[in-house]
Amino acid sequence: MNTFDLEKIFQEKIDGEIKIEPKDWMPDAYRKTNIRQISQHAHSEIVGMLPEGNWISRAPSLKRKAILLAKVQDEAGHGLYLYSACETLGITREETINDLHSGKAKYSSIFNYPTLTWADMGAIGWLVDGAAIMNQVMLTRTSYGPYARAMVRICKEESFHQRQGFEILLVLSRGSEEQKAMCQDAINRWWWPSLMMFGPHDSESTNSEQSMKWKIKRKTNDELRQNFVDMCAEQVKILGMKLPDDKLKWNDKKQHYDFGEIDWNEFWNVVKGNGPCNKQRLDARRKAWEEGEWVREAAAAFAEKRKARQQAA
Amino acid sequence: MNQLLIDYTLHLADNSLILGQRNSEWCGHGPVLEQDIAITNISLDLIGQARNFYQYAAQLINAQDKSEGPKAPAPLERGFGGEVTEDSLAYLRKEREFSNCLLVEQPNKDWAQTILRQFFFSQYQYLLFEQLQNTKDEQLAAIAEKSLKEITYHLRWSGEWVIRLGDGTEESHQRMIKAIDELWRYTGEMFTPAEYEKTFGIDFNKIKEDWSQKVKIIFDEASLIPPLGGGGAAFMQTGGKTGKHTEHLGYILTELQYMQRAYPRCEW
Question: What is the nearest CA distance from A34 to chain B, expressed in angstroms?
Fold first, then answer.
């Protein structure tokens, strides 16, 4: 079969909502796009452990400590599923991780912001996990089978995390004056970066069109962002807090909230590596990897020895 | 009698909490993703044990307060409404009131030291809790029994890593030797009972004997040798069980207790 026919069959499968599986023929660009997106997603889970990990040792109660630890551990687990999904496309975990460390591969920019107070654990759960879920729910129906299946598992845990985050804020919003102020401050700092998580406007997004055709993505950046704003604008009322946007207003005609413009200058700055914690996050990942090298070598050497002994016996 | 039970329960809680806190420092920084998850799991188990013990201690203290009136000067900070809670015990007691063993507060350093600390402690905890599940205090016995399932896994995991590192590469072997040199001096304290440990029918001599034997088996397989062949001659540091700690504990508590100290009497 020539490439033209293969591509035709491939697109027919996509159009017919049949999942693409690892051994199926796929266009090179489809493979590359999936590798890029899944590995970015995996890296985001792993780098995303750091801002929240920053508060594990200082969590304000034993219960909160246990919940936070379990949450960060879940993220490591998500990273594992996603690296495995990525491996089905013919790239090893090590190669993928090297691309992160060299700066070639990206991860979600949101993790380049610092976690300054305990309330940030709540804001991350509510807003950052909330924004991630919008994207991930869509991805449970993505066309590449292993990715879609990984997302189903991840989504279940993520929505749990989001509720936990909201609950942290809810307790703060009913607490002392200092706690309320801490809560509002965290919302102020995380709101705009959370909106940026959906990426550039559809008109500016380079990868969107082809990804929609291949059903890797099924909703556009702006559609997802609007859904997110509509959701948060309602939820923030329960907290008795405010979203930091003067332009936020219900639009009866559109049946959506209007909202202000993102500071795209800040967005591109963080993407280019100039966010407040870009350097620290990558340094921390590289350090863990480099300092772990002797451990991985020892484990490999021991496994070899054991195998040799078993064969000799 | 009740004071001894309270002191003993707090000691068991402190052991688990401090090691759990130490292990949690690895979360997000482990040498490989699977092991990051494993050490976090152990940390979670330990914090869970600590919570069970603290909750029990709080219950005992609150009951004692009701019958005898709070002790003056109060040995423990009171939490909300004057009631002691798991959190007031973990977050409001001070350096000299913590009675964990010195071993568990030692720094993580590298993976070899973390592994060895876990192995030494899990082996001890396993043997101790095996006896403790038959102690006459039903609540302690129940917590011990429940925890043993987890500890069995901690012991297997850390023991396997001791072997893997001891018998891995030259570098990992050297790092294990260094870890033994750092940590061996803190093992003796575990088998030296404080006053509050003496009335629960625990045979510490047997724990010590079994511990030495089990450690030797794993060390043999890992091509490692305990100092002075593991005999009784090596000098052992003590004091943690009676609140005389290494300098590390103050820093652990500074971080652990930061929020409760900075924002007193809040709910989280």
Answer: 22
